[in-house]
Amino acid sequence: MRSDAGARRRAGCACQCRRVAPAQGGSVSAVLSLVRPDLRDFAGYKSARSEALRGDVWLNANESAWANPADGEGRSRRYPDPQPPALRARMAQLYGVASEHLLVGRGSDEAIDLLVRALCVPGQDAIVITPPVFGMYAVCARLQGARIVEVPLVDGETGFIADLDAIREAVLGQGAKIVFLCSPSNPAGSAIPHDGISALARALDGKALVVVDEAYGEFADGPSATTLLDTQANVAVLRTLSKAHALAAARIGVVIGDADLIAVLQRCQAPYPVPTPCADVALEGLSDAALTQTRERVALVRSERARLHAALERTAGVRRVYASQGNYLLARFDDAERAFRTLLAAGVVVRDQRAAPQLGDALRITVGSPVQNDRVLSALGEDAAGGASAPTGLVVVGAEAPPTETMS
């Protein structure tokens, strides 16, 4: 007699996966129509923590009965909840959405990978990206076997701008399933107008998912694209605790979108994506007191961004500094290699962007603390002055006095 497990193995599936019941009447929503047909009723792996069971002796996951000596409170002995309820609820509150519209995962990177794997059929579907831009969109597409369609940012008087008309035509002409819009753009720093994102999503309704990566959204002026979710099911938003919230090592990010899409992504997600220690520190980092301090630091970064921008523009050898809505500045240099080496010699590490499209003379400088920013200005100012020695950390002459940390 042939078992179900044996049938699955002969069909190429040796996992403990299941299938969910199809929609009533066989109908598929507009957003689910973008999901790979073979994954629409895929139920994923059934872990020990995915069942709503109650008891006081837990012997269903082959865990140790004793805590590790290094784990004093025994918090890491058990597998964590796949979606820690308290953290999910707190992040939903933070971003102004309902919990069912949000999936917590291993930074924004996992969300990007999940979206590409869930929507793109290998060797058939495509994504659209806007270089120069964050490299993980292309990496995930390459690993999935999805085509990559590039619509470069346009370098103009106001900075690098996304050509939304060209993006729309590329999607329709190439049959792309996903458009990745990085806003604020990394590394360019420019933000995409909210009404432009809305218009693009309407034009691509039922044809492609518009993913807005807002990793640096806390530093920007405009509203979040999450405000479009009520009217546009084909919009998804990426957020992270790695930047403004200073929890990069915790690796906590979310994808926010239509509840049906979020459910599909959760079924495609590897088991136990949020380790308990990471969930604990993230929840503590989102307390009211922590959020107050985060807002104060964001305000300081925005102030320092303006100061650093103005000072760099006055620094000899700096050809152009782009306006930025992120916590970084993109700058072109007469001699980017020399500037990069000068900063390294002063102990300052910045991101060399010269291998990126259109950026053969550019460096990206994170806006740090006032003292760290002064180190940047001092090093570049000394180099422009011919290497005059001045104590590291002093403000370069002419700079404003300071007020009372693949492309990541």
Automatic annotation (TrEMBL):
Keyword Transferase in annotation: yes
Keywords, in A-Z order: Amino-acid biosynthesis, Aminotransferase, Histidine biosynthesis, Pyridoxal phosphate, Transferase
Cofactor: pyridoxal 5'-phosphate
Domain Aminotransferase class I/classII large: 71-380
Top-rank taxon: Bacteria
Signal peptide from the UniProt entry: none
Keyword Glycoprotein included in the entry's annotation: no
EC class: transferase
Pathway(s) per entry: Amino-acid biosynthesis; L-histidine biosynthesis; L-histidine from 5-phospho-alpha-D-ribose 1-diphosphate: step 7/9
Residue numbers carrying N6-(pyridoxal phosphate)lysine: K243
Reaction equation(s) it catalyzes: L-histidinol phosphate + 2-oxoglutarate = 3-(imidazol-4-yl)-2-oxopropyl phosphate + L-glutamate
The enzyme's E.C. designation: 2.6.1.9
PANTHER family (UniProt xref): HISTIDINOL-PHOSPHATE AMINOTRANSFERASE, HISTIDINOL-PHOSPHATE AMINOTRANSFERASE-RELATED
Family: Belongs to the class-II pyridoxal-phosphate-dependent aminotransferase family. Histidinol-phosphate aminotransferase subfamily.
Subunit description: Homodimer.
Name under which the protein is recorded: Histidinol-phosphate aminotransferase
Name of the gene encoding the protein in the UniProt record: hisC
